[in-house]
Specification:
Radius of gyration of chain A: 22 Å
Strand order of the largest sheet of chain A: 4-3-2-1-5-6
Distance between the termini of chain A: 41 Å
Helix content of chain A: 25-40%
Strand content of chain A: 15-25%
Oligomer: homodimer
Largest interface: A-B, 57 and 57 residues
Shape of chain A: globular
Order of helices and strands of chain A: HEHEEEHEEHHHEEEEHHEEEEEEE
Largest sheet of chain A: 6 strands, mixed
Chain lengths: 350, 350
C-alpha cells in the first residue's frame, strides 16, 4: 500500500483534514521552511483529501514548487507589499473545501477549523506514516548520506585545540557544500565532560588531549530527515569508556538483529537495553520529523512492518563522559538493512 | 507604558489568551526553538494573563530557563522515554487557567482552545508589540551587533573565486563565534546576476571579477531578531549600478529623516519610494519576528511612536543586477537613532 492508500484507509470514506506539518508534507510533498520560525508572509498549510483520493493543499502561492504532481494547490497570497491576513484566508479556503463527514487531526487545526466536528485520527495517521514509500526512502537515504559526510568531517577535524563551534562550522560546511545550499540541521556536538550530558549544542569549549567527541547529526533534505551519531576518542580513552562504547556497539548490533517485521518495538528496546544502560529511548522512527513512530521504547506494542525507517542509538554515560552509537535501518521482508554509512568506531577504522 | 501595561490595556479586564509564538515570547520571555521544526518532545506554549496582570505560561518543563522572573510556568512533560500527548496536555492545562471573559488571538489557538468564546484582539496585540521596552531594545541591539559582524565578514571575504556557500560559512562562523553558540539566521546571500532576484539563499555560484554581492543578514539572539543588508561591488560596477546604489542610499537617508513620532508609516514609505523604485516594502518593524508592525508600505496609516524599531531597506534592481541598503533605527522623542553599525557603501569605506 502506498501512503496515499494508507491515508484513505484511515479516512475510511470521510474527508481528511490536517494542518500537522508532517501530515501535510506526507500527502502533498510540501517542504516547510523552518529555520527562522513562522514566516510573516505565509500561514501554515492545510491538507484536504476527499473520499475519492483527490488531494488539495491550502498554501501560499510562493510554496507550490515542491508539491507532488497530482496535488491541487489552493493558494493565498505570499510575499506582498499589501497587508494580507493570510491566516484567516487559509482557514476560509480550507473551510470551503470541506464536505461531508470529516476525520483529521484536531490538535493541529487553528481557529474556525478547530470548530469543525471531526473524528480524531491523529494516532492512526502517525502510525500510517511509519512505513515509508520508495520515494520517501530515497529522500531519507539522501539525508543520511549527507549526515555521513558531516560525521566524516567531524571525525577528521577532531584534534586537540579545535573548538566545538569550529568543528560545527566544518561539519555544516561539508554537508552544505555537498548539497549545494543551506540545510536545516539538528545537532548535538559536545566534547570532553560535556559528553556526559547526552547531548547539547556546540559551544566555545576546545578539545583537549585524550578527549571525547559526541556528535549527533540530523540534517533535512527536502522534507525528510536523516540521523546519525558517533562517539570519537582522541588519544587514550579510559577503560571504562572503551568498555561502555563496546557495550553500546553490542547493543546496537543486538537491536539491528532484533528488527524484523512482526516484532514489537518494545522487544527491540528490551534487547538493546539488556546490554547497556541509558536514560533515553533506544531509537525512533525518522522521516518527516526527527523522532516519530515507531518509537523504540519500553512497552511499545507497535508491530514493526517492512518499510519502516528506524534510528537505533544506544549509549552509555558516566561521570564526565558519554558515548552513543547510532545507525538508521529500514525494515525489510525478513530483517533490516542499514542505511547509515558513517564510521561508528571509537577510533577511526579507516 | 511597559509592554505588560500595553497588553493589559488591550485585554481591558478580560483574560488574555494566545499561542502566537511572538505574543508568548513578548509576555513571558520564552525563546522558541525553531531551527528544526516542531519538537516531538514539546507542544506550542500558551500564555494566559488574568485581569490582575498575573502572567502564566503553559510550557514544556524543559523550556522554562528563559522566562521572565515573575512569569509562572505551568508545565507539561518535556523529553521523556514514555509516550506523552503533550499537545492535549497543553490544551487541558491552558483551559484550566481560563476564567471569565477572554480576549486573544483565535488564529493561534489549537483544538479545544479555539472553541472558547473570545474577542479577537490579534491586530491590537500586533500593534502593541511595535514599541519596544528597554530590555527588548537591548536584545535587538545585540542581534544587530551580530549582524554587523556578519556583514563585515561577508564584505572582507568577497573576492573573485569565492562561492556564495563559502561566504555564507564564513559569515555564519563569524556570527556564531561572536555569540559562542549556534544561532538562527535568515539570510539572502547572492552574487552576480542572482542579485537581480532581490534575494535568495547562498548556492554554488562563485564570484567573478566586477561582481556584485547582495547580503541580507537577519540573526536571532534569544527571542529577538536583528536585520541588515548591504550591496558590495568588486572591481568596476557599471554606472547604472553605481547610480542605483547612490539612489538607494539617498532613499535610506530620506526615510531616516522622515522617521519621527507622529508620522504615519506610509509617509516614510512615500518619502523613500519617491527617490528610487523597488518591488518590495520600504521597511518593517523588527523584534520578536523578522517582519512586523509598523510595516513601512504605501498607505499604512499606523502612527510611529517612540521606541518602535524599524528596518529601512530601499533597493533597486535591473537586468542582471540588484542593490539594497538597510539599516535599523529606533524611533526617539524627535526622530530616530540608527542602531546598525555595518558598512553600507558599495565599496568599503574603511
Amino acid at each position: 500500500m502506498t501512503r496515499r492508500e494508507r491515508a484513505l484507509a484511515v479516512a475510511d470514506g470521510r474527508t481528511l483534514l490536517s494542518a500537522d506539518p508532517a501530515t501535510v508534507s506526507w500527502l502533498t510533498g510540501h517542504v516547510p521552511e523552518i529555520e527562522w520560525g513562522p514566516s510573516p508572509f505565509s500561514a501554515p498549510p492545510v491538507v484536504v483529501v476527499d473520499g475519492s483520493g483527490r488531494v488539495r493543499i491550502v498554501v501560499s502561492e510562493d510554496e507550490t514548487d515542491s508539491l507532488l504532481p497530482d496535488v491541487e494547490p489552493v493558494t493565498f497570497p505570499g510575499f506582498a507589499v499589501e497587508e494580507v491576513d493570510r491566516h484567516s484566508r487559509a482557514i476560509e479556503l480550507a473551510l470551503s473545501l470541506i464536505d461531508g463527514r470529516v476525520a483529521g487531526e484536531p490538535l493541529s487545526l487553528p481557529g474556525a477549523l478547530a470548530r469543525i466536528e471531526l473524528d480524531d485520527v491523529g494516532v492512526e495517521l502517525q502510525r500510517a506514516r511509519a512505513a515509508k514509500d520508495r520515494d520517501e526512502l530515497d529522500a531519507i537515504r539522501s539525508a543520511i548520506a549527507i549526515a555521513d559526510i558531516g560525521q566524516a568531517a567531524a571525525r577528521s577535524a577532531f584534534v586537540p585545540g579545535v573548538s566545538e563551534l569550529e568543528l560545527w562550522t566544518l561539519v555544516r560546511a561539508a554537508m552544505e557544500s555537498a548539497v549545494g545550499g543551506r540545510l536545516p540541521v539538528l545537532a548535538d556536538l559536545v566534547t570532553g565532560p560535556r559528553t556526559a550530558d547526552v547531548g547539547g549544542a556546540p559551544g566555545d569549549r576546545r578539545a583537549e588531549h585524550d578527549d571525547l567527541l559526541l556528535v549527533d547529526l540530523v540534517p533535512r533534505i527536502g522534507a525528510y530527515w536523516g540521523d546519525s551519531c558517533a562517539a570519537v576518542a582522541h588519544g587514550d580513552a579510559p577503560g571504562i569508556v572503551r568498555d561502555a562504547h563496546a557495550n553500546a556497539l553490542a547493543a546496537l548490533e543486538a537491536a539491528k538483529t532484533a528488527v524484523a517485521p512482526g516484532v514489537r518495538a518494545g522487544e527491540v528496546d528490551a534487547t538493546a537495553r539488556a546490554l547497556v544502560d541509558y536514560p533515553h529511548h533506544t531509537g525512533h522512527g525518522v522521516g518527516l520529523t526527527v523522532h516519530e513512530q515507531p518509537r523504540i521504547v519500553p512497552g511499545n506494542d507497535q508491530i514493526l512492518e517492512e518499510g519502516m525507517v528506524i534510528a537505533l542509538e544506544p549509549g552509555c554515560y558516566g561521570e564526565g563522559w558519554g558515548v552513543r552509537v547510532e545507525q538508521v535501518v529500514v525494515v525489510t521482508e525478513d530483517g533490516c538493512d542499514v542505511l547509515s554509512g558513517h564510521d561508528i568506531g571509537l577510533y577511526s577504522t579507516t
